[in-house]
């Protein structure tokens, strides 16, 4: 199971994620892919940098898979998030969820991306045309400005 | 644009569909994949057969892409549906929609699969353990029993 919930510095191949969740019992796979977008509120992004506290991030991804299984039942989930420097259109995250019927696959996949942004310790540094900024949490509600938090400052709650 | 909305007898590669919609302006791609499930209401499927009136089906797929663009704006959509004999876990359909933000990608992808089942002339023959049946429309609300409709019987409305 371990490699179903992964942080990686390598490019992510969506087919690999999809193949891991396809199974006889499932009639539906929903895949969400987050890519690096050029413009955010009128500012041009040149590239992004992601950093993560990997063991905790992978643990949190696995937790999201467990939450999906509890809520929807009969699910299979893969979540892979890339870190390091990402260029425009590079894939930052792939979620793939298989379920017997399609409504559940859509809902569970949507749930996964919202939860990633809530609980997974991954920090994004925006490199804009006119400067850089660490985006504190992925919901972008706070900013750590020049630095990301130290490992000791994070709570595994 | 033509090959973004395709009926094919060959296996569908999700990565090919995804690559076609990834672009600088998009931060999100939602992909829906329909696969051949073993059990439906307790009946075991051995394999499926899909047939289609291809020119009309591709025209309708393209129409769905246009509807998505009208409703959500700034979208890019690929829809590929396979026909012929499909085994368990084979991919029958892949939808990929890219949008700047994720909520739209999820909604548009969901819209696409519902519309496919409403308006695209593709017929499914279930080969169960204990017999076969043509599923008339994809919403499975009527059955053509032993045959699919003649081309002349279909209206392009």
UniProtKB/TrEMBL annotation, chains A, B:
GO molecular function: molybdopterin synthase activity
Catalytic activity reported: 2 [molybdopterin-synthase sulfur-carrier protein]-C-terminal-Gly-aminoethanethioate + cyclic pyranopterin phosphate + H2O = molybdopterin + 2 [molybdopterin-synthase sulfur-carrier protein]-C-terminal Gly-Gly + 2 H(+)
Quaternary state and interactors: Heterotetramer of 2 MoaD subunits and 2 MoaE subunits. Also stable as homodimer. The enzyme changes between these two forms during catalysis.
InterPro entries reported for this sequence: MoaE_sf (IPR036563), Mopterin_biosynth_MoaE (IPR003448)
EC identifiers of the protein: 2.8.1.12
UniProt similarity note: Belongs to the MoaE family.
Record flagged with keyword NAD: no
Protein name: Molybdopterin synthase catalytic subunit
GO BP field: Mo-molybdopterin cofactor biosynthetic process
Biological role: Converts molybdopterin precursor Z into molybdopterin. This requires the incorporation of two sulfur atoms into precursor Z to generate a dithiolene group. The sulfur is provided by MoaD.
Pfam families per record: MoaE
Pathway: Cofactor biosynthesis; molybdopterin biosynthesis
Gene source species: Lentibacillus kapialis
Keyword terms, alphabetized: Molybdenum cofactor biosynthesis, Transferase
């Amino acid at each position: 199971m371990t490699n179903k919930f992964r942080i990686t510095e390598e490019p992510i191949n969506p087919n690999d994620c999809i193949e891991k969740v396809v199974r006889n019992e499932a009639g539906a796979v929903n895949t969400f892919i987050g890519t690096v977008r050029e413009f955010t509120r009128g500012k041009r992004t040149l590239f992004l940098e992601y950093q993560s506290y990997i063991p905790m991030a992978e643990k949190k991804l696995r937790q999201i898979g467990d939450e999906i299984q509890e809520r929807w039942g009969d699910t299979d989930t893969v979540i892979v998030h890339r870190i390091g420097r990402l260029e425009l259109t590079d894939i930052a995250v792939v979620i793939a969820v298989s379920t017997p019927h399609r409504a559940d696959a859509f809902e569970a996949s949507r749930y996964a991306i919202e939860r990633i942004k809530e609980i997974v310790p991954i920090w994004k540094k925006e490199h804009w045309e006119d400067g850089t900024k660490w985006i504190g949490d992925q919901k972008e509600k706070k900013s750590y400005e020049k630095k990301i938090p130290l490992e000791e400052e994070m709570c595994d709650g």
